[in-house]
Design goal:
The protein is an alpha+beta fold and 294 residues long. The protein contains 10 helices and 9 strands. The chain is globular.
Length: 294
């Protein structure tokens, strides 16, 4: 039986506590704004004209390509639906599940690790590897819809097979390295600098001076390539780190300073506007969620 695509759902939060696989086909979608997740994402494009911006890297994704995106990476999607229908698999995996399924000898999250040599997000698959990955995704999707005997065990088994296969392909040198996806050196250097120095004072003037470029040129190029302003990018990166620190048990009155906010009031307003909850509320809910997971 042919797989039926799911109805479009704009949410960027998991509906399950472990993993979620979505198969989608759309003929018209607006661009997806810059965002991040608290989980790992595997993205497999089947058809469509798609450009993915992940941190300072820009990828033109071809049908049969796979992307690997880690929780700390801000990313954005640009779609040209007039070229062809947009069909893809999107797999979200909770970090705790990934840790539980790994072993002392095998880290299933290795393919997502930005510190690995030659790190890149794009896995350009050969024909036979593409067929193997697609077959595993189709089987996992079918089993995710099943309530038959042993479906929970079979789902985890298929997920492990998929992640082992992806990691082996990455080990074989199949990913596009970081430098291959960068188009503007100044913008890439600024993003890399922000990722390392988000806890320090940052501004357009300071960064333009730091990298010897006109602030007007930097502002224009940043908006053109990343799809958002430099200020908004810095804000999102700081809030992303703050959210993760709160989930790890750090206190809100410590987190705001670590993440580069000048005062707690400004941090409070920005966090609540971004996530719909005050920092303390989010910290309490994250602590409750972590206890339930244990």
């Amino acid at each position: 039986m042919a797989l039926q695509p799911q109805v479009f759902d704009p949410r960027q939060e998991m509906g399950r506590p472990d993993f979620e696989l979505q198969y989608k086909r759309d003929s018209y979608l607006k661009d997806v704004e810059l965002h991040h997740h608290d989980f790992f994402e595997l993205y497999f494009l089947m058809s469509g004209d798609v450009t993915y911006i992940i941190e300072s890297r820009i990828y033109h994704v071809m049908p049969g390509d796979m992307l690997m995106i880690s929780p700390r990476e801000l990313h954005q999607l640009v779609i040209r639906p007039e070229m062809s229908s947009y069909e893809r698999y999107v797999l979200w995996v909770d970090p705790q599940l990934l840790s539980r399924l790994s072993s002392q000898l095998t880290d299933l999250g290795a393919c997502f690790d930005p510190s690995r040599p030659g790190y890149g997000n794009l896995l350009r698959l050969k024909s036979e590897d593409r067929s193997r990955i697609r077959g595993l995704l189709e089987a996992l999707h079918r089993e995710s819809q099943s309530e038959g005997f042993g479906s929970d065990l079979l789902r985890e088994s298929l997920l492990i097979q998929l992640l082992v296969t992806v990691n082996r392909l990455v080990d074989q040198g199949g990913t596009q390295p970081e430098s291959a996806g960068k188009s503007n050196l100044a913008v890439a250097k600024v993003i890399d600098y922000v990722n390392l120095h988000y806890g320090e004072p940052l501004s357009l003037d300071m960064l333009a001076e730091q990298f010897y470029v006109s602030k007007y040129h930097l502002s224009h190029e940043f908006n053109r390539q990343v799809g958002t302003s430099l200020y908004r990018y810095i804000q999102k990166k700081r809030l992303l780190i703050a959210r993760q620190l709160l989930a790890q048990g750090k206190k809100p009155n410590e987190v705001y300073g670590i993440c580069g906010f000048g005062d707690y009031a400004g941090f409070y307003r920005a966090f609540k506007a971004e996530y719909g909850a005050a920092p303390r509320e989010y910290a309490l809910s994250a602590r409750h969620w972590n206890q339930e997971e244990k």
